[in-house]
Specification:
The chain is an all-alpha fold. 85% of the residues lie in helices and 0% in strands. The chain has two helices and no strands.
Length: 66
């Protein structure tokens, strides 16, 4: 596995943890603006992490086929 793929997994993990953390932070009372921002940023970061991890996995499988 190349360092580029490992970097993709690392960034995906950071995005996923950031997104999950923001969504979990909604358990405490927040202002309307914070609720909106935490939801938007949290969902986008979590989705970005998932998609990046899927792309890294596809690259691993693609490079192993050759």
């Amino acid at each position: 596995m190349s360092w580029q793929i490992l970097a993709m997994y690392a960034v995906a993990l950071v995005f996923a943890l950031l997104g999950a953390g923001l969504l979990l932070a909604l358990a405490r009372p927040r202002s309307d603006g914070q609720i909106y921002a935490f939801r938007m940023i949290g969902i986008m970061a979590l989705a970005g992490g998932i998609v990046l991890a899927m792309s890294a996995t596809a690259m691993v499988r693609w490079s192993a086929e050759g």
